[in-house]
Amino acid sequence: MNKKILSVVLILCVMLAVMPMTAYAAVRAFCPKCDQAQTVRMTCQYANDKWHRCDLTCTVCDNTWNYWQAHTWSGTATCTSGKTCTVCGGSSEPLGHDWSTWTQNSDEKTHTRICKRDASHTETNNCTGGTATCTAKAVCTVCGGEYGEMAAHSFTAEKAEAQYLKSAATCTEKAVYYKSCAVCGLSSEGTADEATFFSGNALDHDWGAWTQNSDEETHTRICKRDASHTETNNCTGGTATCTAKAVCTVCGGEYGEMAAHSFTAEKAEAQYLKSAATCTEKAVYYKSCAVCGLSSEGTADEATFFSGNALDHDWGAWTQNSDEETHTRICKRDASHTETNNCTGGTATCTAKAVCEVCKSEYGEKLPHDLTAETVDAKYLKSAATCTGKASYYKSCAVCGLSSEGTADEATFLSGNALDHNWGDWTQNSDEETHTRICKRDASHTETNNCTGGTATCTAKAVCEVCKSEYGEKLPHDLTAETVDAKYLKSAATCTGKAIYYKSCAVCGLSSEGTADEATFFSGNALNHNWGDWTSNEDGTHTRTCTVDGCSAGTQTENCIDANKDHKCDICDYIISECADDNKDHKCDYCGKKLIEHTGGKATCKDKAKCEICGAEYGELDPKNHTNLKHFPAKAATKTTEGNIEYWYCEGCGKYFSDKGGTKEIKKADTVTAKLKDDSKSPQTGDTSNLALWLALLFVSGCVAIGTTAVSRKKKYNR
User: What are phi and psi for residue 382, nearest 5 degrees?
Assistant: First the structure.
């Protein structure tokens, strides 16, 4: 045990020697010796990746103690650097790179992997490994991407298969095939030499049916194997009519010319109409073939005949033309038949043209206006009367009332009288030295004078007796009065300084605040600090604030301490750390608090259960869980030897049972069956000597049994 403690102490000394130390700090903490909070000297040093040890020395009694505190990390750990403890200055381990899988780059020659923690951390190498073939590039053994060039093909294989066919066999020629790659089977088609070979035999001709040609005079048959192999003959046989050509007896196609038509029939039917009847002409029809009814339309003479009567004109309404001087009507049967006349009738005015009595549309020109009327009306007003001039009006048309405004001469007339000035109130100008009044009828008519009258004070300028506005300058203030009043307060008393007040005007009480010298005076006494309670900052520090109003230096911040090792700051109750049981002894490694009871394992009749966390025995024995229950079959007694019943004996607990399950306990004596009776040695009636002997033996046996049981139990509980 002493060696184990010494080893731990040596390891801690080495760790303390290599870890950085925090600067000395003066804080307040609860001194166990003084039994109150005192100012202490504290240094903290790195212990491990979870804790630093803080050493405290009371500045009053020099008592020294320490406590362990969890690191207060600052910053964020990266691949190459750790976080820094703001208390002890120690650093955590860097995270190291967390590489993603290698990914081939766009150049298909290199691959790159990126750190998942910082995308700026990358590693790039050339693709390597793998073997290129004629069908695929080499595959990189690192990133799995193809790279480099494929190998060349070997066009030496001769396979007479459809996929390699260059030209099929013809009636006169064998089939030609492209050679293929002996490795991958790629055809040589499209390569530099396009290597080929012949295979098979020529096919001979396989003629198709005779088909009439486009000249409709011959017919041709084509070899089914090669369409360039043909045979052509003239069409023959058959008889032509006026409706159909002769039909070739070989190919079945029509050929030659049809017989001529006999255009002698006259049928006044729509199918033969050449031109319908018009207003002046009868309808004209084509004659038709007397044999087949074909119209003569399109023939050499296009024979025709007349039928029916002319229709006469069906005139539409008269419509004025775009010249607005004439009107026209159109025949509904033939739009080429028109009639046009001049518009007539109606009378023009200065507001409207004449309306034609035939087509009812306006035509001609309007009459000019008679601008001679003098009407005093707002709609004819050119300019209103002014302070010095009469109102001016436009003359109007005596017929329609149109104003002369906008006409060639814009004839006008004057009416009424001038208005004279209507002065408004005097108003001070922006120079604050003069005032002006404006005519309400014409704002261009103004009158301006200097402000006069009134008396200035230190609080107000002089007031003009005309415009009633302030003008000139105020008198200066007499800033000599020292009045202690909140309205003159410049800065309140603090814990270290008196209150400061602005001086005020002895005449009007105006504060000197904002003046050229801002004259001030001191009053009263400093307040001293009145500290409030410590408040946790939730970052391993706590702060208290002076409750005195106006205290600018009234805050104190100190590091949290845990001298009593309850994981909480002794001052502000901030949770500095959590309980941990790294040594698995069911107690917190820092404060010693019991965290959890023993758990797991299974007790037997011999051994207690073993805790699955710490491995220690705990709880009670389980008398029903036997470790090795040994069976003894029944044995009959004889006259010379004792027998026994069937029983079971547990080697773990040393107990005897009458059942296989070990639930019915018996004594060892219960297992023994007595020897059979020997009549030859049986005691005589009245002989009590042997009975006394049996009783003595029974008593001794009982004592031995009790002693054995007591020793067994003592051993069991001493284990």
Answer: -95, -50
Nearby residues of 696 by Cβ (< 8 Å), 6 or more positions away: none
Q: What pLDDT shows up at residue 134?
A: 85
* Amino acid occupying residue 605: C
* DSSP-derived 3-state class of residue 681: helix
Which backbone phi and psi does 282 adopt, to 5 degrees? -75, 165
0.85 cut: is pTM over it?
no
Beta bridge partners of 536: 542
- The two tokens of residue 676 are 């059979």
pLDDT tens digits for 133-158? 888 889 999 998 999 888 888 888 88
Pair of tokens at residue 593: 């608090």
Q: What is the DSSP string of 618-669?
A: ES---TTS-S-EEEE--B---SSS-EE-SEEEETTT--EESSTTS-SEE-HH
**Integer CA distances (angstroms), 22 to 53, 90, 307, in order:** 11, 9, 131
- The C-alpha atoms of residue 252 and residue 235 are separated, in whole angstroms, by 9
d(CA 673, CA 647): 12
Distance from C-alpha of 237 to C-alpha of 235, rounded to nearest angstrom = 7
Give pLDDT, residue 3.
46
- Rounded to whole angstroms, how far apart are CA atoms 434 and 570? 78
Q: What is the pLDDT of residues 601-657, one digit of tens each?
A: 888 888 888 888 888 888 888 888 887 888 889 888 888 888 899 998 998 888 898
What lies within 8 Å, CB to CB, of 38 at 6+ separation is 28, 29, 30, 31, 58, 59, 60, 61
